[in-house]
Amino acid sequence: MKHIISMKNVSLIRGNRVILKDINWEVKEKEQWVILGLNGSGKTSILNIVTGYQYPTKGEVSVLGKKFGQANLPELRKQIGFVSSALDRFHQTLRSETVEDIVISGKFATIGLYENVTNEDRERAEQLMTFLRIDHLKGKTYDTLSQGERRKVLIGRALMAEPELLILDEPSIGLDLLAREDILSLMKEIILHQQCHVLYVTHYIGEIIEEMTHVLLLKEGQIVAAGRKEDVLTEERLSETFQLPVKVHWENNRPWASIHKNIGSATLAKAESK
Ligand SMILES: Nc1ncnc2c1ncn2[C@@H]1O[C@H](COP(=O)(O)OP(=O)(O)OP(=O)(O)O)[C@@H](O)[C@H]1O
């Protein structure tokens, strides 16, 4: 069986700063992973390594069965869809593009359409827009969309090239409850119908929907736990990860976190000073 992601003894050091330390992590076929951790715990650095934009100081990395160092990264990246709220950086470039052109541009990994678009491309984009419930936005430009609509257009763009791995870096950031649940219901549909492996980064454990199977907990660049979500999402491990006494309860097959009620400002100050 091919590994979707394999990291062996991976460390990332920049200057005298250890950003990731001894990461050993495997994502196998049919597993859908969530990465959780505090700000600065190393989540984005892991994604940058997976997409080949950052090279580890030490260790071995394979993605979709291709070993880094030998793999053709531009070719490999075509099989990886990436959605990040950081794409809003390109907002100026995207703003006058139409929804359908942004979705189609995912095939060429460009912002803007500079290559020949075939009828099949247009058909695929139409299907994706229907699938993502954004077909009514056809013809609209990006700058006229709500945040939730923009996020869905970017997901459509990432799916256009039929990626084997779909990475979503905090896709619900800045969205209201309704728009967030809309994105989560699309995640479910994507996992069930798009034949890709999802790697989902979030700060909120309540976003771990039933279809997400595995969780990686990161703290200060090191793995606290990685494995099946039922085994990983324990109060002890979450409390260690978030440096607070966390309580977990499961509702509608989703985990929810709360803080033990007797936590005082002294505990918070202690956690913040770490
Ligand atoms: N090139 C770099 N040089 C020095 N430090 C870096 C570099 N890249 C990241 N860091 C530091 O490494 C740590 C991990 O950063 P990273 O962005 O991976 O965390 P994160 O978990 O994604 O955080 P957030 O949830 O805030 O996005 C941070 O403290 C960051 O400042």
Automatic annotation (TrEMBL):
Name this protein carries in UniProt: Iron complex transport system ATP-binding protein
Superkingdom of the source species: Bacteria
InterPro entries: ABC_transporter-like_ATP-bd (IPR003439), ABC_transporter-like_CS (IPR017871), Metal_Ion_Import_ABC (IPR050153), P-loop_NTPase (IPR027417)
Organism for this UniProt entry: Parageobacillus thermantarcticus
Pfam family, any one: ABC_tran
Residue intervals of the ABC transporter domain: 5-245
Keywords linked to the UniProt accession: ATP-binding, Nucleotide-binding, Transport
GO MF entries: ATP binding; ATP hydrolysis activity
Coiled coil: none
Similarity section: Belongs to the ABC transporter superfamily.
